[in-house]
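Quick one before lunch.
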Amino acid sequence: MERLVVDPGPGVVVRVAVDAPQHSGLTGPLDYASEQVLAPGSLVRAPLGKRELLGVVWPGESAPPEVELRAVAAVFDALPPLGAAWCRMLDFAAGYYQRSVGELASAVLPPQLRELSPEQLAARLRKLERKAAKGPAAAEPVRPELAPEQAGAVARITAQVEAGAAKPLLLFGVTGSGKTEVYLRAAEAALAAGRQVLVLVPEINLTPQLEARFTERFAALLPEPLAIVSLHSALTPAQRLQNWLAAHLGRARLVLGTRLAVFASLPELGLIVVDEEHDPSYKQQDGARYSARDLAVWRAHDLKVPVVLGSATPSLESWQHAESGRYERLTLATRIGGGALPRVRLFDMKSLPPSPGVTTALTAPLLAALKERLDRGEQSLVFLNRRGYAPVLHCGECQWKSDCPHCSAWRVFHKRDRTLRCHHCGFTERVPRACPNCGNHDIAPIGRGTERLEEQLAEALPGARVLRIDADSTRRKGELEAQLQAVHDGEVDILVGTQMVTKGHDFRRIRFVAAVNPDGALFSSDFRAPERLFALLMQAAGRAGRDASGDGVSEMWVQTWHRDHALYQALARHDYERFARDQLAERRSASLPPFSHLALLRAEARTAEAAKAFLDEAAGLLQGEQVFVYPPVPHAVARVADVERMQMLVEAGQRSRLQAFLREWVPALLALKRQHKAVLRWAVDVDPLAI
Ligand code: ADP
Ligand code: ZN
Ligand code: ZN
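Model of the adenosine-5'-diphosphate complex:
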């Protein structure tokens, strides 16, 4: 019998970042055998256990193998490798947010890459090549002449584009001051210098509007197909891969996207813009809990390219950096076209005559103000940050309330489809005809959500065209666009909505904005709640009077029981700086961020005791130098879907101390978890936003 001789070839060892499960304890790249030398950044498929995973060949030396290595299964050789800078960013982010680099890479690469074979990917690349230019060349865009403050800001940014970045730039501009025009000019300079530009926005909803504005401006300059692309999670998997590839190949010159776009491969990146940099949506809330804003700053620093953080109400972290001189502040203090900021009226709820049982959200003076605007043919916006009809149903006989059997929360009454819905676990039931506890037929809603407000407005102002925009009214694809269009087209008199409508939309016709029931956040246990409320109300106010051509002043109406509160007083004067100064003084005296650095360890189990036991032991695992571990406390909504949630705060005066602590602590937690079988999930959140 003839013996087969297998030539093992000149095999080499390569390090590959793959998504190994957390409990395996495999956090770094793994060693594999390869027949050929593979450049760092190459995409491969590699076996792990019984599965075959997408992997990235990782830079760095591997130790000589002690065991026989499994071989790389396939190489995506039609694709140029990811760059060294991209790998550096992933290494940094994985280390900083305490995840494995393989997990992070797998989470941020287009999902479709995981499904395709090298041959299929090669076919996609050929298809991309064949994309032909569309239609005739676009006309030269009309560029408005810059206002002096805008020109000053653009000059500072373009200086950095040319000379290399010195400091992150904080573009502090009131709503309507023309920040977007500054982004456009800055982008133009970077594009002209042959660089790619990345623009991040907080909301998917805002990408079409922004894309339209950038396309209009740059269609003539960038006529090639896929020169302007967007990256966000609402794209189809095929679109997302196509746009990602275009960026990676350098075909896309301008990339607009939500937080995940901060990880786009952009080999010629020359400018990053983070619009509405204060927005909490930049923080990922599961998996690798990264902050896209913070990573944008890191990435820009690493590449020595400018990063522009824009906001009318900067995060207090960024503001403090500007105060200390770490960031350079560029201020746009005036609205374009001289449109005045709306007058803020703090309406004192205590001034109302006491009238029990009467609805307090739609006060008579507010209705009168709305009526007046209506008679003048103006649009108004009423803002209430609570969706549904009423937050709870209540039985007056036995005090039953519509609690969720699975969560420590009420189920919200939705009148349109007559359901009780839990906004935490999704548990939904038909509204009972009678009290499920005592049979009383007279069960009544307490409190008010947007759905009820819409109904009451329509009743109180017959003939007014009232439209509600919130997560419920925009569930189906295209609904939000259609509703926004109706507002723009003047088919709506009164718009009712949650914070969804306050963000970014350039409503030209709205001249009156009312916030009802905003007080809750003043007394929240979350130290960031006032900052968020202030930003939200400033944004809401920014929706009014954007068009200076109308006559009469525009107005923001705030209904509050605490009209003397410093937050409202600062709001009334549009004085962000005053608000920031007050807040920062409080944060400083309480040693809260940005004057300290936090991480949160969360644990979930069937019982609170099991979650607490894990956290208690975790607290005792190691003594960090100048790191303080607080006792475990229940999450604000302690139980969701029959799971108890506990959390524990870790605080350090210096970021580096916290990081050093986490580097030792997290591996020890992995080992500890094995002894706590009752713990279902745990996670570390570095720089947590919601506490
Ligand atoms: P912001 O983003 O600061 O809220 P925008 O960039 O949306 O403000 O600008 C507000 C409006 O002013 C937009 O309609 C924009 O087209 C217009 N605009 C901006 N800059 C100028 C300018 N220099 N001249 C004329 N109009 C401008
Ligand atoms: Zn009852
Ligand atoms: Zn629930």
